[in-house]
C-alpha cells in the first residue's frame, strides 16, 4: 500500500511540476537488447521494450513501459530422461527518470516498479510437463544515455536490472533503441 501511495504522490508531483514549468515534452522509445538471468546459468536471450514518457522539465520525467525479457531455455536431463525448462517474463510498469542534459548527449537514471508475469514450464520426456504462472510487482533500476541525432530522434543505450523476478532471480537487460521526441 505504501508503494502505491508513494507512486501516486510522485505522479501527482510530476504533473504539478509539468503544469508550472510549462516545458512539457513527450517521447516514445523502442529498444532491443540482451537479457541475462543468472538463475538460468547465464542463459542470454533477446528482449525488447516500448516506452512512452512525459518529460516534465529537462531534469525529471515519468515513463510507462511494456517489457518482454525474452524466453530463456535450458535443456538437460532428469533421472536420465531428456528435459527442457523454459520461462517467459513480460509486463507493464512505470519509471521515474532523472536526466542530466549535456548538449547533444543526455545521461539518465531511472527507478521503476513493474507488474511482471512469468510463465514457466518443465517438460520431461516420458513423464509429461508441468507449468506455472507467477504475477508480481518487481522493482527495477537503470542507467543510460541518449545521443541526439535530430531534434526529433535520439539513439538510446541503457542497462536495467529487474529485481526478484518470479520471487527467485534478477534479470539484467542491456538494450539499444531509437527515441522519437514530440
Percent helix = 10-25%
Quaternary structure annotation: single chain
Contiguous low-pLDDT stretches (5 residues minimum) are none
CATH topology term: Porin
Strand line-up of the largest beta sheet: 1-2-3-5-6-7-8-9
Second-tier CATH architecture: Beta Barrel
The CATH C-level class name: Mainly Beta
The number of strands is 9
How far from one another are the termini?
34 Å
Describe the sheet with the most strands. Answer: 8 strands, antiparallel, barrel
Strand content: over 45%
What's the structural domain tally? 1
Number of helices: 1
Mean pLDDT comes to 88
Based on CA atoms alone, the radius of gyration comes out at 19 Å
| Order of SSEs | HEEEEEEEEE
Which outline best applies? elongated
Alpha-beta content class: mainly beta
Could you walk me through the main structural features you see in this protein, from its secondary elements to its overall organization?
With 182 residues, the chain is mainly β. The chain has one domain: Porin (Beta Barrel), CATH 2.40.160.20. The protein has 1 helix and 9 strands, in the order αβββββββββ. β6 and β7 (128-148) form a beta hairpin. The radius of gyration is 19 Å and the shape is elongated.
